[in-house]
């Protein structure tokens, strides 16, 4: 029986996970919602105000998708907040956010 190269299997799992994450993040408002939760839980209305252009129906869909992805949770009395997976994602996003700010500023030169 041929031995499976675990490095190749590991790389395939990383690729599959990355592709699934990109598919989720590609949906409009997903990243903005996650970013708005960076300082702690907020209510639906607070999220809708922060993302003023999003309709309530789209916001509901995105919140459900993010709950299914285990990136956020809803707690009665507190609202929507990040799970440990969501917090890990925001830690990973910080260098990208810093880069994006510098990049955007450089475009104006």
Give keywords.
109 residues; 2 strands; Arc Repressor Mutant, subunit A; globular; two-stranded antiparallel ribbon
Question: What does the model show?
Answer:
The chain is mainly alpha-helical and 109 residues long. It contains 5 helices and 2 strands. It has a single domain (28-107), classed as Orthogonal Bundle (Arc Repressor Mutant, subunit A), CATH 1.10.10. Helix content is 66%, strand content 7%. A two-stranded antiparallel ribbon has the order 1-2. The longest helix has 24 residues, at 84-107.
Helix content: 55-70%
| CATH superfamily grouping | Winged helix-like DNA-binding domain superfamily/Winged helix DNA-binding domain
Q: What distance separates the N and C termini?
A: 61 Å
Mean pLDDT: 90
CATH class descriptor: Mainly Alpha
CATH architecture: Orthogonal Bundle
Beta-strand content estimate: 5-15%
Here the CATH topology equals: Arc Repressor Mutant, subunit A
Alpha-beta content class? mainly alpha
Please describe the biggest sheet, giving its number of strands, its sense, and whether it closes into a barrel: 2 strands, antiparallel
Number of domains: 1
């Amino acid at each position: 029986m041929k031995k499976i190269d675990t490095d190749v299997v590991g790389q395939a799992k990383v690729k599959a996970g990355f592709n699934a994450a990109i598919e989720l993040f590609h949906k409009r408002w997903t990243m903005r919602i996650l970013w708005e939760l960076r300082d702690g839980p907020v209510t639906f209305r607070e999220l809708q105000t922060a993302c003023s252009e999003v309709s309530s129906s789209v916001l509901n869909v995105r919140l459900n998708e993010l709950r299914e992805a285990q990136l956020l949770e809803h707690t009665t009395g507190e609202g929507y907040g990040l799970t440990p997976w969501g917090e890990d994602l925001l830690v990973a996003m910080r260098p990208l956010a810093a880069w994006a700010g510098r990049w955007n500023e450089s475009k104006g030169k």
